[in-house]
Design brief:
By secondary structure, this protein is mainly alpha-helical. The chain is 57% helix and 12% strand. It has two domains: 32 residues, no CATH class; 56 residues. It has five helices and four strands. The strands form two sheets. Strands 1-2 form a two-stranded antiparallel ribbon. It has a two-stranded antiparallel sheet with strand order 3-4. Helix 3 crosses helix 4 and helix 4 crosses helix 5. The protein is rod-shaped and about 75 Å long. The structure holds zinc ion.
C-alpha cells in the first residue's frame, strides 16, 4: 500500500515518494512535493543569490563560511603592507580588492593598534 499526502504548495494528492525526506516532520516527509520544492528552491536561490554566490566564492578560496570578505580584504591588505609599508592606500585597495575608503578606515585602526603595541 502506497502512502499519499497532500502537498502544501500545489495542494495535489501525491505519492509519499514524491516528497523529500524531512526528519523534523512527524511523517518524516517534507510538506512540499519535489516539484514544488524545486520551484521554491529556485525562487530561494534567486532571492539569496548573492549570499549563495558569496559562500561558493569562499569555498573556492578554501575559507570557512564564518570568514567574511572583510577578513579577506584585511588579510590581503596586511600582507601588502608587510611586503611594502610605503604603499599608498589606493594601491593597497587595488591589491586587496577592497574599496579605497575601506582601506583608509582599516589602516587608521591598524595604526592605532600599532601605537598601542609600541607603548607596551
Ligand atoms: Zn506540490
Amino acid at each position: 500500500m502506497d502512502m499519499q499526502k497532500t502537498c502544501a504548495g500545489c495542494k495535489e494528492f501525491k505519492l509519499i515518494n514524491q516528497f523529500g525526506l524531512d526528519k523534523n516532520r512527524s511523517d518524516g516527509r517534507a510538506p512540499y512535493c519535489k516539484d514544488c520544492r524545486h520551484i521554491i528552491s529556485h525562487k530561494l536561490y534567486e532571492k539569496h543569490k548573492e549570499k549563495i554566490l558569496r559562500s561558493q566564492k569562499l569555498k573556492k578560496l578554501n575559507k570557512p563560511a564564518s570568514v567574511t570578505f572583510r577578513d579577506i580584504y584585511i588579510e590581503k591588505a596586511r600582507d601588502a603592507i608587510r611586503k611594502n609599508p610605503s604603499l599608498c592606500n589606493s594601491t593597497i585597495a587595488k591589491i586587496a580588492g577592497a574599496t579605497y575608503n575601506f582601506i583608509c578606515r582599516e589602516r587608521k585602526k591598524m595604526k592605532r593598534r600599532c601605537t598601542i603595541n609600541t607603548k607596551n
